[in-house]
Known about the structure:
The protein is α+β, with helices and mostly antiparallel strands.
Amino acid sequence: MSLTPSKRLLTYSSALAAEGCLAGTFRYDVTSGELQWSEEIYLIHGYHRGEVVPTVGLMTSHQHPDDRLRCREIFDEVCRVGGFLASYHRLVDARRRERRVLISGQGLPEADGKPLFVDGSIMDLTRTLQLETDRSSRDAVAGAVGTRGLIEQAKGILMGILHIGSESAFDLLSAYSQHHNIKIAHAAAAIVRLANNTHEAATLRSLVHALERRFAARQDGEHALHSGQPGPPA
């Protein structure tokens, strides 16, 4: 069996799409200890072919110190008894850049079942994770901005109908959300949705005035509690 990996590695990253994902293959001869890398794995480790001789020790030395022991234990176990391996860990390349990689492989046995080779691949997920993190951050910011916009719209509606200030309008929204056990943003969305529907004008005004009465009653009750006086009848 040839030592050199011969099968082409096909990869896909939803974050990178057509850009492609840096990944390569390796083959380890369990008997001789010889390790063969494809060109991509040299690049992942920060080298070009000819600059270093691949060894398990070199590969292990580039793994993050906190991940190194467990990764080596898994690799050694596959070399000893065969089976499959998969590991997501940090890799520090020759330029001291930290990468996130996924390594997978399989122990290929002889007739007696003892592993003869370990064939595997390493996929650099650093760029994928960075893009996905950036996208999540942008979505979170956009969501926060949208939420603030909804709340401001709802406050404006309450201020216009009830002729109250911004702080009082927010207190009414808070009371609505607490009474219905929903988030303030959802309460604001309900009010804005009614305001945007010309056929729901009466429903909106009824809701707002009912909310105002409920809030006023709650305020009276809190005042009575602190003053020791009986509140309004329920």
